[in-house]
TrEMBL record:
PANTHER family in the cross-refs: SLL1072 PROTEIN (PTHR35400:SF3), SLR1083 PROTEIN (PTHR35400)
Family matches, as InterPro entries: Nuclease_put_TT1808 (IPR012296), Restrct_endonuc-II-like (IPR011335), Uma2 (IPR008538)
Domain Putative restriction endonuclease span(s) in chain numbering: 17-180
Name of the molecule in the record: Putative restriction endonuclease domain-containing protein
Annotated Gene3D superfamilies: tt1808, chain A
Amino acid sequence: MTAVDDRPMTTGMVKIFEELEPPEGVKMELLRGVIVMMASPDIVHNMIVADVQDQIPRQRWSRLQTQDVNILEEASEPVPDLVVVARDALPDSGRLLPSKLVAMVVEVVSKSSVHQDYVIKRSIYAGGKIPAYLILDPIMRHCVLLTKPAGEGEDADYLSQEIIKFGDPVPLDVLGLELDTSEFGTLPNVRPHRYP
């Protein structure tokens, strides 16, 4: 019989992850002890992120791309497509932003990120008690707004889920604004998926 060590690989895996240098144009994340690498995103993806960023007022909110988020009690350092933090809560420096400071994270779904965005990151962000998680899906042409995080670890989830089709406004109460989705692009010739 083979013994299996099922303890979380927090310290060791985080150390290995932080020492890795990804190739040019590759995004790298640590999600529950698994190192995930993805190629650079599509133009549709980048334009959606830019459009969301432009609608969030800089006077009140810091809108950060490629910012690593530290989720306590997790072997995870996700890098959301957009992280929104109150300007007065933003630290002066550091690679890891504590999840307790984050007001909202945004992920734009790509062909290769569907499961991570809808399942894995959903419980990671909920476990980190991030108040709002907005999934923007150019494959299915809709937004999924998740709020009211509850639970711990892999059992964590958002208690409220609202699906809004592209073109309709998304009420982002946590930011005190309504997001215009009418200009969001879509990914043509991509097979639909089964999420959320």
